[in-house]
Design a protein that fits this description.
The chain is an alpha+beta fold and 150 residues long. It folds into two domains: 57 residues, Arc Repressor Mutant, subunit A; 80 residues, Glutaredoxin. The chain is built from seven helices and five strands. The longest helix has 12 residues. The two termini are 30 Å apart.
């Protein structure tokens, strides 16, 4: 992983405003931004470690630990809330056995809030491993829970 990460850093090193594209490329390649490499990222871009960490912690899509095997992001924005996102969240939390914003101890599934997936007319909506799932009725939620549990 180290040499691949170094290659990504080198590709962005001399680009103006490179931090976000660099972090996205690292996350895409590895699934997370390794915290032990924040100093290397900051040094390569001639910015502080605090600034680098601040950007990683500000944007909710960046993670500093490997993701769960399945990541469910449930839209909690106003349009989805108006279409039943709160009830969908309760169903998912109960069915998956974890609170919103947590990862199961076995690392199999994470349930995360998202704020607008752009599926407002089809809410409540979710992303399951980056694939959209809309109109989350009771039956669709139960099917999702069963799929994630298998």
């Amino acid at each position: 992983m180290s040499s691949d990460l170094d290659t990504i850093i080198d590709r962005h090193r001399d680009q103006p405003g490179a931090l976000l594209p660099l972090l996205h490329d690292i996350q895409h390649a590895f699934g997370y931004v390794p915290p032990d490499r924040i100093a290397d990222i900051a040094a390569a871009l001639n910015i502080s470690q605090a600034e680098t960490h601040g950007v990683i912690s500000f944007y909710t899509d960046f993670r500093t630990s490997p993701p769960a095997r399945t990541v469910v992001k449930l839209c909690m924005a106003e349009a989805c809330q108006a279409r039943g996102a709160e009830a969908a969240a309760e169903t998912l939390c109960a069915g998956l056995g974890l609170p919103m914003g947590e990862t199961r101890a076995d690392g199999r599934v994470a349930l995360e809030p998202a704020y607008c997936l752009g599926l407002c007319a089809s809410g409540p909506a979710a992303l399951v491993d980056e694939r959209p799932l809309a109109r989350l009725s009771g039956a669709r939620l139960e099917a999702l829970i069963a799929k994630v549990q298998s």
